[in-house]
Please model this.
Amino acid sequence: MGSSFGKIFKISTFGESHGPAIGVNIEGLPAGVKIDSNQIQFELGRRRPGQSRITTQRKEADEIEILSGVFEGVSTGTPMAMVIRNKDQKSKDYSHIANQFRPSHADYTFQEKYGVRDYRGGGRSSARETVARVAAGAVAKQFIAQAFGAEFYAYVSQVGSLKLEKGYVDLDLDQIDDHAVRCPDRKMADKMFQLIDEVRKDQDTIGGIITAVIKNMPAGLGEPVFDKLHATLGKAMLSINAVKGFEYGSGFDGIKMKGSEHNDAFYQEGDRIRTRTNKSGGIQGGISNGEDIYFNVAFKPVATIMQDQESVDKGGNTATVSGKGRHDPCVVPRAVPIVEAMSALVIADFYLITRTNKLNN
Amino acid sequence: MGSSFGKIFKISTFGESHGPAIGVNIEGLPAGVKIDSNQIQFELGRRRPGQSRITTQRKEADEIEILSGVFEGVSTGTPMAMVIRNKDQKSKDYSHIANQFRPSHADYTFQEKYGVRDYRGGGRSSARETVARVAAGAVAKQFIAQAFGAEFYAYVSQVGSLKLEKGYVDLDLDQIDDHAVRCPDRKMADKMFQLIDEVRKDQDTIGGIITAVIKNMPAGLGEPVFDKLHATLGKAMLSINAVKGFEYGSGFDGIKMKGSEHNDAFYQEGDRIRTRTNKSGGIQGGISNGEDIYFNVAFKPVATIMQDQESVDKGGNTATVSGKGRHDPCVVPRAVPIVEAMSALVIADFYLITRTNKLNN
Amino acid sequence: MGSSFGKIFKISTFGESHGPAIGVNIEGLPAGVKIDSNQIQFELGRRRPGQSRITTQRKEADEIEILSGVFEGVSTGTPMAMVIRNKDQKSKDYSHIANQFRPSHADYTFQEKYGVRDYRGGGRSSARETVARVAAGAVAKQFIAQAFGAEFYAYVSQVGSLKLEKGYVDLDLDQIDDHAVRCPDRKMADKMFQLIDEVRKDQDTIGGIITAVIKNMPAGLGEPVFDKLHATLGKAMLSINAVKGFEYGSGFDGIKMKGSEHNDAFYQEGDRIRTRTNKSGGIQGGISNGEDIYFNVAFKPVATIMQDQESVDKGGNTATVSGKGRHDPCVVPRAVPIVEAMSALVIADFYLITRTNKLNN
Amino acid sequence: MGSSFGKIFKISTFGESHGPAIGVNIEGLPAGVKIDSNQIQFELGRRRPGQSRITTQRKEADEIEILSGVFEGVSTGTPMAMVIRNKDQKSKDYSHIANQFRPSHADYTFQEKYGVRDYRGGGRSSARETVARVAAGAVAKQFIAQAFGAEFYAYVSQVGSLKLEKGYVDLDLDQIDDHAVRCPDRKMADKMFQLIDEVRKDQDTIGGIITAVIKNMPAGLGEPVFDKLHATLGKAMLSINAVKGFEYGSGFDGIKMKGSEHNDAFYQEGDRIRTRTNKSGGIQGGISNGEDIYFNVAFKPVATIMQDQESVDKGGNTATVSGKGRHDPCVVPRAVPIVEAMSALVIADFYLITRTNKLNN
Model:
């Protein structure tokens, strides 16, 4: 269980880091959506390893093959399966951990849970799985663009203690991809790059925060009670490798406020009801109100470091795990398209659910 | 959609704040669990309004009636439905908002989504719905106690800017219920009480944080990829009314660390593999590792304040919403049993899923 | 598991034959549907015991209470829960089978499955559960009537060897309820009544067939591959107590035909594409084609007979089960509204799913 | 929707008849199952076209590629995806129906439902999809063999009016595969072969029945109310292309019996409770009782005939559909492994669900 996400626009991913392929099956993609495989490839390129010296040097072309669900460039309403072949596996790099548990990885817990595990590169627990999410998210984005036009942004707003103080409204979100770090403030981006590069040279890793924004949202998306829009976004984000926290709108800072400061007054603008402030983060009672949605996602420092660490092996004997393999010193720059992809998947699903909310649709 | 939670141990809640009843149907409760309805009633008592002067004065006995699934005090494996009758509705208090949208409530978004809404006390969006969660959680707790004995704690660790600096390991968690605020540090609890009471007198509200701890966890719970244990806990918490953020283990603070500081080294203790530190919060790769699980849940200041606020009505005309009704100046003390209940529901579900993970169970 | 049906218009039933109540929770009922509780009560009346001397003499008013999801006579889009209190339980009638297994009942299998069972009147396995389905089906019918107007018919077409040779097109379906047997051919209905009454006097039971027809269907309902419309209808029917077989369109008789005889030629009629014959039963490739849907449902003779039968008890000792309790000599007359209800639930669900099939809805 | 089956042992199939590949993703396969890909290939060989002159002459090696979920020959508990490449597509054969609707096919209904369709070979509605089911079923069989040893049989018991009067208990089920028709009675098999061959020469098609038997079943599988074992088996069978009817145990014939004849008396045999007769077909109250499960599945004559037929095109103009393509004159011989596969998938799923039924498993 656990490899599926969504209720109507539903994805199921499969594949191990060093198996033959990573793939995803999308069920519930409506018929009639023009599918541009170049756009899928473009998003995969944003996530691809080896983009700069601050990302892992694993080399994967990440070429997508569409196996089903598209005919003459248009979705047919049937499941759309896609596979990406793994090519640059260096499985030998991992033979030393066949019997050892890497600290703060999923080695031990997979072993306990299943009694067996594909230890090569973390197997199913590897962040390589997210290539499937990005491919599916690229399809969700195309659907949304053709259906109602919501727009997805994500950027790096913190690395270690380097924190971008400006809010998203004061940034030019079109500049995100102009810098390898994917922070739209050039000065801060340079500093972050330097910090990550230093950490890399120290054979260490560091954490960070990604801020995401969804613009041009219709009101009414999200379901009351358990499937609130922010709860589902939160789960989507927390399911990304290395994520430790999620907050939306005023978030953790909002707790210090009084209700009288925190509430967002309503007013009429043209034929639309709007709020004067947006501490709600575009979501009230778990349902979008038409204002921008924004949230923060906290990523821990990657567990794989190039240093020796204390651990135990399967037999419970003390062992020293040595740092091998190719990994990112800081995941946030490459996680940006993943955060966007998961956002688009959540919104696509709720949009379709919304069609079933009223007698007359 | 959206009123169900869980995959095997699955709950569905129903009912509006001012309708005849709130209820919950539990599917997937295994047969053979001794059900003590007093324990359910006890948990409801912890959540009940009117406990002290810092909670809402609505008076509800919150008496549970079990309609099915229990025979001679033991669960039968069939759906267990429970209802709690609403008694102290003062629906007249709400007639003034039949056509108005209260700021930062779900009035506007429900209207947009459904084209119709039960405006009395927020209808389905009211926190009164959580009485059903607490009842179901009390059943989950009994199941867990009889199956493997995990223990659930939650307490108030922050109100406004008043923050408890001690971690949970330095607190006596058995003292949580000794104080109306549900903070196990008496001194801090007194301060928090005072602050809430002041806010109440100012006809205002304030936010806070609940910290939760799950002890005596087996390893292996949680499913890889999308249904990671912390992602599911996160969704569960974010689905509670007024929650704006979730973090587990090192959380948002962990991002500032280096991987070499953050990683939890493994060692052998007796016949058990343990970690020397627990920045992972008891979860690695989305699966429990047997260490304590701990996380923080951020609650915004309640939206209902006893002050006049700017808003609009259904027709888009400017309106003044006046503060009426009976509400909590700060929700965290009463939200403690809700956080515990949701934790127990998540763990009960994953425990049952885990039985299907291996060929030989 | 197993007490829920449907994906979007989803019902969950609960309750035991001799527990406090039977109930149903409907999730996914769209907002804006006018709900007439008299119509629900009317359908329950059609299923109610004690209608004539050929049905069980258990006396239940079967009064419905709506607990949620309806405000000012209109559905709000939130879960609609309903309960029917059990009143005329004579649980003492069942104390003799607390330790015995009635032949061809679910006593033994429930005991094996759960290790415990509510033996009173069959507990959860009793056909009393279907009262909840009829209530939910009555809501589905109202939704469908207001949304697109499909019409549901079901009638008794066979009792024992008494078989109505006319097809549904040669019958007046408005006469179904004019006779206690619910066969629209008066002559045959009289014969069937006589046969059932004889069987009753012999303290025995007998089987029968219900034929169902759905008229005024739009094309496009049903999902390819596993959730074909007829597969889902089949499951719905086979889930009704005592059902042993299902066939649609040409059914079991169709196997003897050649493809050239069996195929339904297409032609244009006005602006609609139609078929000249309808051996497909209104369904092609699992999807409705706009022609009438029709199918047969086979019911075995009820297992409860008023005669002594050989069996064993929980300890494996030989035992004689004596016939007690109040039961129907033939279930088909009272099963007619149940078949209709399940049909309506299937169609309501697929109708809503269909809204998500295309980019532009 | 509709391309997934199962709740815990869950399969999702994808792919079109003339697309690049057909595939299946299995979620919920427990870890630790030895996977023999030769056995998967063996089952695919039983379903493969071109086995004799009475099956379609499309040539497909149907080679399986396992993409994930298996490591060193053992399942890892993660999703197991498999693909089969399509090789012998002759898509040109279908250009004539790009705008025409073949009678009793899914062409018209797909067009109505989705507004677009992959017309080549029926696209997603083609029986080629069942290759994915057989692959998944072969995995389910291996899991079941290693877990508890239930055995699956299916055979042709009727073709046109040629009906095998012997029941399964009087047949040698090990001889099923000895004859191209897959009827274990050699004499009858020869007659059936002749009939199918005649029909083929007439460029026509004919229907038939498959009888299935599941032996060595444990008691307790199947869930009460909606997910009854026979209801789920029924849905599984009705979801197979060309199926029009399903009956289990005494089936449609049982309706003529009295309850006193139909009931299966219990007795003790060694340490096992058994029934003297088995009109229940091994299922009581929707739950297996440990006796053999048996059921019949009715297949209509295949819709594709090599004759000209009246129809209409997309514009509603009269059209003549001419018989082209390569198809089976009678599907039942090749459908035998499909019926077995679906049976195994149902049983695997219920077996895993059963592990969650009791407090102490």
Notes: The mean pLDDT of chain C is 94.
